[in-house]
Amino acid sequence: MRENNMKIEFDALSENESFARLAIAGFMASSDPTLEELEDVKTAVSEAVTNAIIHGYVGKEGKVILSGNLKEHCLTVIIQDFGVGITDVEQARKPMFTTREDLERSGMGFTFMEAFMDELHIESKVNQGTTITMSKRLRG
Ligand SMILES: Nc1ncnc2c1ncn2[C@@H]1O[C@H](COP(=O)(O)OP(=O)(O)O)[C@@H](O)[C@H]1O
Ligand SMILES: [Mg+2]
Q1: CA of 97, closest atom in ligand 1
Q2: For 35-76, how does the pLDDT look when each residue is reduced to its tens digit (9 = 90+)?
Q3: Which of 84, 86, 96, 121 should be mutated for ligand 1, with most atoms under 8 A from CB?
Q4: Do the beta carbons of residue 57 and residue 12 sit within 8 Å?
């Protein structure tokens, strides 16, 4: 299989969470993923996109970039925002840690991303934004 790349930019609106899920599912289709692999990736991507919208931009206007790379049955997904950033990444990764208890968040987003993907990398700069890089080997 040849290497394949995609990159899309969309507005930080909650209705684009399902768009991002569908977009990544469509991109993966060529590598014949199992239903479980599809669900895992869709869940991880929607957690990261939701975070960009509600935490990164705190409901304000902004752009989210979703990119994908498929190479030798390994999928890499990058979700990028240019929002407030994360002050303490190690703390943010911890299960049940949330800065938005007011929104009844579960604080499990990063835990899910870690569980459903093989690798999770978080890069963030305060007031510059956050880039989430995740990869998963597709066994199909
Ligand atoms: N893109 C982001 N921009 C700014 N802060 C973020 C971003 N993603 C996550 N965070 C921070 O990390 C915390 C943990 O995220 P997560 O595990 O998804 O839990 P939850 O979304 O339920 O709060 C969030 O409460 C928030 O403080
Ligand atoms: Mg979250």
Answers
A1: 14
A2: 999 999 999 999 999 999 999 999 899 999 999 999 999 999
A3: 86
A4: yes
Domain total in the chain: 1
| CATH at residue 87 | 3.30.565.10
Q: Domain span at residue 113?
A: 4-137
Q: Is 113 in the pocket of ligand 1 (CB under 6 A)?
A: no
Q: In angstroms, rounded to a whole number, what is the distance separating the alpha carbons of residues 115 and 109?
A: 10
115 φ, ψ to 5°? -75, -40
For residue 126, what are the CA distances in angstroms to 87, 92, 140? 6, 13, 38
Gap between the Cα atoms of 139 and 131, Å rounded:
26
